[in-house]
Amino acid sequence: MRALLSVYDKRGLLDLARGLDELGWELVASGQTAAALAEAGIAHQQVADVTGSPEMLDGRVKTLHPALHGGILADRSKPEHMADLAAQGIEPIDLVVSNLYPFSSDPSIELIDVGGPSMVRGAAKNHAHVGVVTSPDDYGAVLDELRADGVLSDATRRRLARTAFAHTAAYDAAIVEWFDDGELLPPTLHLTLERAEELHYGENPHQRGARYRLAGGTSWWDAAVLHGGRALSYLNLFDTDAGWRLVHELGTAGRPAVAIMKHANPSGAAVAADLATAYRLALESDPQAAFGGVVAIGGPVDADLAEVIAAGPQADVIVASGFDTAALERLRTRRKATRLLSAAAPEVTIRFVRTLGQGALVQDGDELRARPGEWAVVTRVAPSAEQLADLALAWAVCARTSSNAVVVAIGGATAGVGAGQQSRVVAAELAVARAAERAKGAAAASDAFFPFPDGLEVLARAGVTAVVHPGGSVGDAAVIEAADAAGIALLTTGERHFRH
After folding, report:
1. Mean pLDDT of the chain
2. Is 10 a catalytic residue?
């Protein structure tokens, strides 16, 4: 039996090579792989000895030779293939162990591997007769099977071939992305996703689901630690991601912030002098909706904060930057079914992809570009500093709420959220109904312009005194006139934040 070894990632290489040698395999190795085997005293042949051709062109050509590829690609079930090998004095190769240059970590022309993918693809194509191993994680299982059975099973070779083709596909995708040079909307997109975890079910129990990540990339989810409760579900993941991103947007400049999410929409959010106060204020926005939701804490949870949270409604997930020992003990005792998750800040997402049947919609992130100090005051009345702070909070929360959305805020916290309505007037009615008496003197935001005065008039009748919206409607003059008539400060941002 003969194995060809040519790897860049040399983790586990020597253990694999020794194991194969002990089983009586003949080893053929190239370049630095051969050097590593020689240093370890493991018997092998160099590729040049097999091909009769020296490495050349700074190593660009070393394995591209019929003496190797013939041995890899020969169909052992065809006598004519075996006759061709015999006529050329080529010995079959039964196992190819190869992984590719780390292009993603340091992209350059010199790290575009040619010989490696050729060997890997050849062995994977001929997996009926040849095993191919591209990941050191598979070395142990391969050796165990060879020790037990002497050969790799058909199922194992097929599994390894599938992994090999995924390996070369991801490699080629990384090269294409490098050529795209950061272009958001290139002619083609080659996204390689690797399964990070299987989920109990999808959005509903009759659906299957899993979480994937970009191959070779990192997600804040991968380093998150689950301290208590069951594994997270599809909806837990979706809602927690939305809450964790929102709380980090609200918590700029180190402000303690809390967001409570339900079905990926905020039911309450607040910034305050401390996290316990922020939690209480966020909860007051809609205590009923908070039951079974996600609580995102923009900082660590200590025993005192845990006591406050434990006194609140049951949450499906509590996510924070950390939990001290006393906090974990308290929450595990009082909230046994709650998932307790500690995590680092979420990564910045540059490109958003949403499936559209057999296609996709692609866009960049919805950044809040216009800052409160840049907003235009279009009415006779201007907002106070306190009102402007509440407008900024309402605007930020509104941008992360399903459209049509209207958010009412006062005292650094949301008081009412109207989310996901076909009518902007209804969104306003829901927001003020939830806010009730807290709407008096409050600020409000709308994610898109008020096309008519009616939505703003709903806010005015409830007692809202400052409103921010994008502006830009043909009906702006009528809306401004209604605001002036009600004595409301009206501001425009010049940017819309629909969220679907």
Report:
1. 92
2. no
